[in-house]
Specification:
ten-stranded mixed beta sheet; Lyase, Ornithine Decarboxylase, Chain A, domain 1; 20 strands; TIM Barrel; Methane Monooxygenase Hydroxylase, Chain G, domain 1; alpha/beta; 19 helices; eight-stranded parallel barrel; 4 domains; single chain
């Protein structure tokens, strides 16, 4: 995994600048405060870089759990930058957040469930503190896209209008109404349509103006996340967006300003939690190709002879007679012959060698037919079907489940392409298979930059035995590292942080990936116990005469080196 801090800096500055422009153009009287929700990617060096690059722009952090709050308190040192506390909260979480205010941290506790308000009040009394409180409103308006269910009336978090009114009454009763500083709402992640964002903004702004009318002295409106990333460039899919960052900022500002002016309410400070938009672009996963399954057959198998089953004679005839004039007829005959051969084998008519011959001849005919179809303007359907049949499978040294889990879990599209040999035309069609022994461990949906649609294969260079070939999966900086699982016990990859300058580049950080021992410890295996168990087995086998002392010594050596090694495949000389 290669991370580029320069891109982090550029994204922080871009988002801040997008809000600054409409503020100046329309005379908006509030300020903008970006907040990074660390759940998107909690890697230490990344969060440190965000804090560093955002210091002059007052970038804050958001935590959604008690462990995340502890991380944020240790890393956030920007004066007055917001620390937004979301998620389920217990007494310890709330007390820690309130005590953090005594350290000078600008910590706002967002009440996501009505029960939490009583815990906040109890903690405030215990420490004689005036807590900074936020209410999260449960909007009726839903967002759109893959994560649409995280918003709307049935969303997991948020207070209903009844609970908000009751919460205001409770704060008035406890003389804490002035502590309510923030209104928060959330419309989902990766929202593809700007119209969904506008609708949610209007409803959220109405909550804000009504709370002000009830006496709340709100300072902030937190519009949450939702700002999407254009993964596929189409502008019309769940992996894309039909708006720019500037359009997003313009609509947030104009909607809030219009409704606040209408009700005579002061313009609030605007807070966004655009984590994906801040960090998705900054990292790329690099992996090498280990081998290829090539189904093209330039030469047919041995000719069918008298005495061979009829199906073999038929397929031999198709191979010999196919041409540009009869390609449609031959394609239908070939498809039928393939089905017949499989059925005949199942019924015991074809032997295994005969089935193997039919399979080899099928790909020989398909290869010949594809070349003919590629030269015919009216054979697009045949060419498309044969392209899928003949596409290569490239075996890749990574785990989909560890490094791009959203590709498997929700069908998220990531740009994937070769990163060298770029002066050569990639003439092969391929799907990608990972190291795991799981049939879902593959990528077979790719972005077609020419048509704006999707395709099952990607263009790739011919694999050359003995020569390294590298590919990259881009826009992997949001969620992928932190969501990755240990399928087949493949752990975190090695990671490097690369900074660019006019003088070249520097390696700022090297973060080693998981060793086998580290991964096994996650599932309660101890290195010493495992080595001792294998050592005892070798002693017994030496006594039984099934292994020599030298072989046993070599086995233990390989075993210990394996436990200390990388979970991914390595070159023999390393």
């Amino acid at each position: 995994m290669i991370r580029f801090p320069n891109i982090i800096k550029a994204r922080v500055e871009l988002l801040h600048g997008c809000f600054k422009e409409p503020f100046l153009d329309h005379g908006y009287k509030g300020n903008y405060s970006g907040v990074y929700p660390i759940k998107v990617n909690q890697q230490k060096h990344l969060v440190q870089e965000l804090v560093h690059f955002g210091k002059n722009l007052n970038l804050g952090l958001e935590c959604g759990s008690k462990p995340e709050l502890l991380v944020v308190l240790a890393l956030m040192n920007t004066p007055n930058a917001l620390i937004i506390c979301n998620g389920f909260k217990d007494v310890e979480y709330i007390e820690t957040a309130i005590l953090a205010q005594k350290l000078g941290r600008n910590t706002i506790i967002v009440v996501d469930r009505k029960e939490e308000l009583h815990l906040v009040i109890q903690a405030a009394k215990k420490f004689n503190a005036r807590p900074k409180i936020g209410f999260r409103a449960k909007l009726n308006t839903q967002g759109s896209g893959k994560w649409v269910d995280s918003s709307g009336a049935r969303s997991k978090f948020g207070l209903t209008s009844v609970e908000i009114v009751e919460g205001i009454e409770t704060l008035i009763k406890e003389d804490l109404l002035e502590c309510l500083e923030l209104l928060h709402f959330h419309i989902g992640s990766q929202v593809p349509s700007i119209s969904s964002i506008k609708s949610s903004l209007k409803e959220g702004a109405r909550f804000y103006t009504e709370l002000c009318a009830m006496g709340a002295q709100l300072k902030y409106i937190d519009v949450g996340g939702g700002l999407g990333v254009d993964y596929d460039g189409t502008g019309n899919s769940d992996s894309s967006i039909n708006y720019s960052e500037q359009e997003y900022a313009n609509d947030v500002v104009s909607t809030l300003q219009a409704l606040c002016d209408e009700k005579g309410v002061p313009h609030p400070n605007i807070v966004t939690e655009s984590g994906r938009a801040l960090v998705a672009h900054h990292s790329v996963l690099i992996f090498n190709i280990l081998g290829v399954n090539d189904l093209h057959r330039q030469e047919p198998p041995r000719p069918a002879i008298k005495g061979d089953p009829t199906i073999m004679q038929d397929m031999q005839y198709i191979f010999e007679k196919v041409n540009k004039d009869n390609i449609f007829e031959c394609f239908n005959d070939l498809t039928q012959s393939k089905q017949d051969a499989l059925q005949l084998f199942t019924y015991g008519v074809l032997s295994l060698p005969h089935r193997a011959w039919c399979e080899s001849m099928y790909f020989s005919v398909a290869t010949k037919m594809f070349k003919i179809a590629s030269q015919l303007p009216d054979a697009d359907d045949i060419r498309a079907q044969l392209s899928q049949e003949l596409c290569d499978t490239y075996f890749c040294n990574f785990s989909v489940f560890q490094s791009v889990p959203d590709s498997w879990a929700v069908g998220q599209l990531f740009p994937v392409m070769p990163i060298h040999r770029l002066n050569e035309q990639p003439r092969r069609e391929a799907t990608l298979a990972d190291l795991t022994c799981d049939s879902d461990g593959k990528i077979e949906k790719f972005i077609d930059t020419e048509t704006g649609t999707y395709r099952r294969t990607t263009n790739i260079h011919e694999f050359r035995e003995g020569e390294q070939y590298f590919m990259g999966a881009f826009l992997t900086g949001a969620y992928q590292e932190i969501l990755g699982d240990l399928h087949n016990l493949f752990g975190d990859t090695d990671a490097v942080h690369v900074s660019l300058s006019d003088a070249g580049y520097t390696i700022d950080h090297y973060v080693p990936g998981d060793t086998v021992t580290e991964v096994l410890s996650y599932v309660q295996y101890g290195r010493a116990e495992m080595i001792d168990s294998v050592r005892q087995a070798t002693e017994e086998s030496i006594q039984a005469g099934s292994i020599t002392k030298q072989e046993a010594k070599l086995l233990i050596k390989h075993y210990e080196e394996g436990l200390s090694g990388y979970t991914y495949l390595e070159e023999a000389d390393t």
